[in-house]
Amino acid sequence: MTISSTNFNPRLIVSFGEMLIDFVPEIAGVSLADTRTFVKAAGGAPANVACAIAKLGGASAFMGKVGNDEFGKMLVDILKKNGVNSEGVCFDDDARTGLAFVTLTKSGEREFMFYRNPSADMMFKEYELNIGLINQAKIFHYGSISLISEPCRSTHLAAMKIAKQAGALLSYDPNLRLPLWPSAANAKETIMSIWKEADIIKVSDNEVEFLMENGDPSKEEDILKSFWFDSLKLLVVTCGQKGVTYYTKNFKGGKVKGYALKKVDTTGAGDAFMGALLFSIAKDPSLLEDEEKLKKTLTLASACGALSTTQKGAIPSLPKMSTALEFIANSDGTMKEPLLPRLLSNACGWLKSTKEWLTSFVVSKH
């Protein structure tokens, strides 16, 4: 296990898990077999969250493993260019960086086909953990994909234990990707096995329906019965453009509206939401006990989630704080000038940085 030399930041959020390459079809509504061209974009839910936090101005680090290949090096470079601490990232000489091919419907919804058996993120070993970095975390965030197989599962559990002992808040977004699991039953059992370790949990309405053993997923009392426990500080159920429902120890069943935008790609929308939520909690933990502050935070998170669906690719579409605040300021929740040009400018900036990386890589090879 390594010790980080990073300077201490009292608001540091460490995200643990997978980072991979998403291949997104240029034309929505076409099958993978019929797609001729793809847009390559960095992805992986925990990495998306890490970048979302950094783009909002927060202190963010990512911890995981990528292949010692062109894609892995590109991903680490993207982390750095987005302001994310990458000291917790390891390279694997044998396993390659994971890939995901994303099928987009015409409405921007997506399905995934993964190439990762095994991929480098699955081979993350406990001795490779950067304990110093974990010990600095104010919030330690993770999903469930890193629990699917060994050795990463044991590494994930060890990292959670270290973070908890160091006093960090544990943040959990299951981010269900059923095709990656051996079975639906295994997914449900494993996801719930660490449920009561978390302080903050975000789930989608679809995940609530999948994980609930008994009861009606639309009823508050059944949600509380299935998912609430005494030491939990915040449970958020997201319902896309319909908004979110939140539960804390002192106030349960509150709602915050969502935003309806024309969707291009919904990949990473939940991660943009989570990034804004964790950024706000790290900045002001008292919002977990102040309903008005929490509502404002969830409004910001919903705006970030909505804005992230207006471009292809998870990380390139993540908004900056100024963009999100301007969007919220439009009382009707629509996108107006000069917001659209700014979003396009952000996308062009990402494409430029990717082109520069590829150029430098080719030059270094000759």
TrEMBL record:
Transmembrane segments: none annotated. PROSITE patterns: PFKB_KINASES_1, PFKB_KINASES_2. It comes from the Eukaryota. GO terms for biological process: fructose metabolic process. The keyword Endoplasmic reticulum does not apply. The keyword NAD does not apply. GO terms for molecular function: ATP binding; fructokinase activity. It holds the Pfam family PfkB. Its EC number is 2.7.1.4. Residues 12-320 form the Carbohydrate kinase PfkB domain. GO terms for cellular component: cytosol. Belongs to the carbohydrate kinase PfkB family. This is fructokinase.
